[in-house]
Write a structure and sequence with these properties.
The structure holds three protein chains of three kinds.
Chain A: H1 3-25, E1 32-39, H2 43-56, E2 60-67, H3 69-77, E3 85-88, H4 93-98, E4 107-111, E5 114-118, H5 133-138, E6 144-147, H6 153-168, H7 173-179, E7 184-187, H8 192-199, E8 204-208, H9 209-214, E9 218-221, H10 224-227, H11 234-237, E10 241-246, E11 249-254, E12 259-263, H12 271-282, H13 284-292, E13 296-303, E14 317-319
Parallel strand pairs in A: 1-2, 1-3, 6-7, 6-8, 13-14
Antiparallel strand pairs in A: 3-12, 4-12, 4-13, 5-8, 5-9, 10-11
Chain B: H1 11-37, H2 39-47, H3 49-82, H4 88-94, H5 97-100, H6 103-114, H7 119-126, H8 135-159, H9 163-171, H10 176-204, H11 208-213, H12 220-231, H13 233-259
Helix pairs in contact in B: 1-13, 2-13, 3-8, 3-10, 3-12, 6-8, 8-10, 9-10, 10-13, 12-13
Chain C: E1 3-12, E2 15-24, E3 29-33, H1 40-48, E4 55-60, E5 63-64, E6 76-78, H2 90-100, H3 105-119, H4 134-146, E7 152-156, H5 164-181, E8 184-189, H6 192-198, E9 201-206, E10 209-214, H7 216-221, H8 226-232, E11 236-246, E12 249-254, E13 257-262, E14 268-273, E15 279-281, E16 291-302, E17 306-313, E18 316-323, H9 324-330, E19 337-342, E20 347-349
Parallel strand pairs in C: 3-8, 3-9, 6-7, 7-8
Antiparallel strand pairs in C: 1-2, 1-4, 4-5, 9-10, 11-12, 11-14, 12-13, 14-20, 15-19, 16-17, 16-19, 17-18
The chains are: A alpha/beta, B mainly alpha, C alpha+beta.
Chain lengths: 324, 266, 350
């Protein structure tokens, strides 16, 4: 070997080793995974949170698995799979289905609310507002959409909004007029209404606020008594009751606030990074991302029993007022 | 040869000249147009750490892919060039296959084998090596789609060295290995180096197979795509220009090495 | 070094060897003569160890080397077209074998310098092979093979790529080498002159078989069959001494027979006369041809439309080629006296 060969080989070796060290530190070689099971409606905010989180912690690779909330829980309780973070669209699922075998605590970190989404093309779109919305929807030449209550929680929540509107506005005919409106379009999932809305086949749709924001739709905000977003109104919401068909059973569902819950299941492998993620989510930056995606961030987060929350997170929580 | 084509009165020659000119314009215009579009913003694009990181990762991962191909492909090329064995003609004919299949399809094929659900992938991830969103994945994809360039170049280079040369070396007391190291390899070196550069250049610009396996670490083409999707055309132009200039530089290096007589490296 | 080849058979690419038996004595200059495609090179490469025979054995000094790789046979090898390492200088080419022996640098330098001196290559030591002439390349290739002082040297068509003049010089060089180094040489060629001039003994090969082995005199004068006759008998080759030279015409003595030829040379040389340049007649011809010799037909070989006549003139044997038709017209047969006539310019000085 000549001197030149040795120099070239040494230079190559240094480059390779240097690059490997750099890649290792950047987490490109052996990343630590943070596996997240989550409800589909949280997909967008969680991916954005994950992106920002990875910038601060490059070694951590987020692994998102999207499904329905109940399915996400069942993956742990029934299938015995492990994840580091579990996000559900209805916080009560965690105490109900996982305590005490699979999880010990729950944080309620965000809420959502029902809105009436519409576009520039919607009939009477320039008239509608938070006070006259039910009158406009009642007009015979208006078409609006909601999803199937048997298939989609957004569908029965739309019916609850209508029931609560009757109570709130003190006009029992509202319920009948809107729930039996001739030009109602029903689709299995609420997102399927978006195409109809954008193409002008319907003028309005009952949607979550987050969906309306994420798809750049205009929307009418509803009073707290109606929109299912507020924990303190939970007794009021309970007045609305919808019967849905699940399999061959009829199930009566009472109105309840739309509150998202998160926990670190007991079989989590990467608890430290999961804690870090929750702390990031509850930080100012994290909350801003949640708000930008249309959910309402709750801070300090609610919990049913602060003594059960891990000490690292206790500074971020407040007790839920009243009984569940 | 030396005649000006325009002096030809034949309509065929004139038509060929015009069509050829259109082809040339089509090939060069987009490249030149992009590069001259934004020389000032190229600097500011370079100032972004993400851009530098992506360009570095492309070069570095491609270098690893080239070294791996070198370690395994050169022996293969030597065997193919020197020995005959059953099935050799099939291997010879199909060695270019990874170049020919669509590259996203190549990525999916790799995912099916090395993905977290595949037996081999699970075995390796049990050993701590995952190919999803890691440097390993990037290098794997790059190696798969670019190795044939090196194997082909090296095989041709080895074939060009008369086996009698090795025989003489052996009659002078050199083992097969030393005959290879002292005679065949140095004589084939230029072809091998060209193969390395082709493999490297191809790996740097790989997009389809890489993005299927690994979105992270970002290589230059993946980063460019992401900038284009997230920030739009204007933001993508300076990055595009940078990548084109890089490709031109590599191309010039390949040409220089392929045509310049290389001092023997004995 | 004595080489023994026993029942050697090998098929390789388009060539094959069939049951070859040979015995080359220590210190012998042995030539394997045959037309292209006869399998000569394959035989040489088997002896060198580049292939494994399908069957048979190769013994060197009584030791079976059939399974020994070439690097452990200690044989010098000069392939056709020399195969100099193009990326090394003449010096480095010659040094190569010593480098493989991990010999100290100054020791290497001493040996290489000596060999370069011996081969007359000293002035070329730093040149790259592509800048050398054919003869210089050949000398370098031989020097490279000799550097390890092999007892056996294999030469594959060493002269065929050289021009006529260089061929003659290299031939002398090979002769000198063989005599001074006392090395056993196996030399493969398709050229009869080389075989005649250089060989102590030679073997004629055809289609992968050895068909005749003997010293040049035997093989050239007493070819075993028509193939050999046609192949080796192509030249009447003689060692000759120039007795007198005048006005460009010289008189030669071929062991008692005197002929005239066109040359300025003096002293010892080899002369060749093509058999078809010799005119055969029952009576002396009256013509301008300077050479007319009387001899007796000792044998003839029927080669189809041509007949090869073996004619003894005193103790010297000539081969002449005539058509079958004139053979029959003249009523030639064994024991008959004939006249051989040829021009002075038909005698080639080699």
């Amino acid at each position: 070997m000549t001197g030149k060969t040795i120099i070239v080989s040494a230079a190559l070796l240094i480059i390779v080793l240097g690059g490997l060290i750099y890649s290792y530190q950047a987490g490109y070689l052996f990343p630590e995974y943070l596996t997240v099971f989550h409800a589909g409606s949280l997909s967008i905010p969680l991916h954005r949170l994950g992106g920002e989180f990875s910038k601060v912690h490059p070694r951590i690779h987020m692994n998102f698995e999207s499904s329905g909330s109940v399915d996400a829980v069942r993956k742990i309780t029934d299938l015995g799979r492990s994840c580091d973070l579990l996000f559900v669209a209805d916080w009560i699922l965690i105490p109900k289905m996982m305590y005490d075998q699979h999880a010990d605590w729950v944080l309620i970190f965000a809420s959502n609310e029902m809105v009436i989404a519409y576009t520039d093309k919607s009939r009477y779109g320039d008239e509608i507002n938070s006070t006259n919305w039910y009158k406009i929807l009642s007009r015979e030449d208006v078409a609006f959409g909601r999803s199937d209550p048997n298939c989609d929680p957004c569908g029965y929540r739309a019916l609850m909004v209508i029931q609560l509107a009757s109570i709130y506005y003190g006009d029992p005919s509202i319920n009948k007029t809107l729930s039996e409106h001739k030009r109602t379009v029903i689709r299995p999932k609420s997102v399927e209404l978006l195409a109809l809305l954008e193409s002008g086949q319907i003028d309005y749709a009952f949607e979550y606020k987050s969906v309306a924001i994420q798809h750049n739709l205009k929307y009418v905000e509803l009073p707290d008594e109606i929109n299912l977003s507020n924990w303190t109104m939970r007794d009021y919401y309970r007045q609305a009751k919808v019967t849905i068909i699940k399999g061959d059973r009829r199930v009566l569902i009472a109105g309840a606030p739309i509150l998202y819950g998160v926990t670190i299941p007991k079989n989590a492998r990467n608890v430290d990074d999961a804690m870090a993620f929750i702390r990031f989510m509850l930080s100012e930056d994290g909350r801003r991302i949640i708000e930008e995606c249309g959910q309402n961030a709750i801070y300090p987060a609610y919990t049913d029993d602060p003594s059960r929350v891990p000490s690292e997170l206790r500074g971020y929580v407040q007790r839920l007022l009243g009984e569940m | 040869m030396g005649e000006a084509w325009i002096a030809e009165k034949s309509p065929f020659i004139i038509a060929s000249g015009i069509l050829g000119l259109l082809m040339l314009i089509f090939l060069y215009l987009p490249i030149i147009n992009t590069v001259i579009a934004s020389p000032d913003r190229m600097i500011s694009a370079l100032m972004r750490p993400e851009t530098r990181d992506a360009i570095f990762m492309s070069f570095y991962a491609a270098l690893l892919a080239t070294l791996i191909t070198f370690a395994f492909g050169i022996p293969l090329a030597y065997i193919l060039a020197r020995f005959s064995f059953p099935g050799k003609s099939i291997i010879d004919a199909s060695i270019d296959l990874p170049i020919l299949i669509p590259h996203d399809a190549a990525g999916i094929a790799l995912l099916l084998l090395f993905g977290p659900k595949a037996p081999l992938g699970r075995l390796l991830s049990g050993m701590g090596i995952s190919f999803i969103d890691t440097l390993f994945g990037v290098v794997l994809a790059m190696t798969f789609v670019s190795a044939p360039f090196m194997i082909r170049s090296a095989e041709d280079a080895f074939k060009a060295v008369n086996p009698q040369m090795e025989n003489v070396a052996r009659s002078l007391g050199a083992s097969r290995f030393r005959a290879f190291m002292h005679v065949t390899f140095p004589l084939a070196f230029r072809g091998i180096l060209t193969g390395c550069l082709l493999t490297w250049a191809r790996a740097i610009s790989e997009f389809g197979a890489v993005i299927i396996l690994a979105n992270i670490p970002k290589t230059a083409p993946v980063y460019l795509y992401e900038v284009f999707i997230n920030e739009g055309l204007t933001a993508a132009i300076p990055v595009t220009s940078l990548l084109i200039i890089m490709a031109v530089l590599i191309f010039m290096a390949v040409k220089a090495i392929a045509t310049r007589p290389l001092k023997p490296v004995y | 070094m004595e080489v023994k080849v026993e029942n050697l058979s090998k098929r390789w690419e388009n060539f094959s060897l069939c049951d070859v038996n040979l015995r080359i004595k220590d210190g012998e200059y042995f030539i394997i003569l045959g037309p292209t495609g006869a399998g000569k090179t394959l035989l040489l490469e088997l002896i060198a160890g580049f292939h494994k025979p399908d069957s048979g054995r190769i013994l060197i000094d009584g030791v079976d080397v059939t399974d020994l790789p070439p690097e452990r046979r200690g044989i010098g090898y000069v392939p056709q077209d020399y195969m100099l390492f193009p990326h090394m200088t003449v010096y480095e080419n010659v040094e190569f074998g010593l480098r493989m022996r991990a010999m100290p640098k100054n020791e290497r330098e001493r040996i290489v310098t000596e060999i370069l001196e011996f081969m007359g290559l000293t002035h070329l030591r730093d040149r790259l092979p592509m800048t050398l002439s054919g003869g210089e390349m050949q000398k370098t290739a031989i020097a490279r093979a000799l550097v390890l002082r092999p007892k056996l040297l294999l030469l594959d068509e060493p002269l065929s790529a050289l021009d006529a003049n260089t061929q003659r010089l290299m031939r002398d060089e090979l002769k000198r080498l063989h005599e001074e180094l006392k090395v056993t040489v196996i030399h493969v060629t398709h050229n009869q002159v080389e075989a005649y001039v250089l060989a102590d003994r030679l073997a004629v090969m055809r289609n992968g078989r050895i068909i005749q082995v003997g010293n040049p005199e035997e093989v050239f004068r007493r070819p075993k069959d028509t193939f050999i006759a046609r192949f080796v008998g192509f030249e009447n080759l003689f060692n000759a001494r120039i007795i007198e030279s005048r006005n460009g015409i010289a008189e030669f003595d071929l062991g008692g027979v005197r002929i005239e030829a066109v040359t300025d040379r003096t002293g010892e040389c080899i002369v060749g006369i093509r058999p078809d340049d010799i005119i055969v007649s029952r009576q002396p011809l009256r013509s301008s041809m300077r050479n007319t010799l009387k001899g007796r037909i000792s044998d003839f070989i029927d080669m189809g439309s041509l007949i090869s006549l073996i004619v003894n003139v005193k103790s010297v044997t000539f081969v002449a080629l005539i058509t079958k038709r004139s053979f029959l017209e003249m009523g030639l047969k064994r024991g008959l006296d004939v006249y051989l006539s040829f021009k002075a310019s038909a005698v080639h000085i080699i």
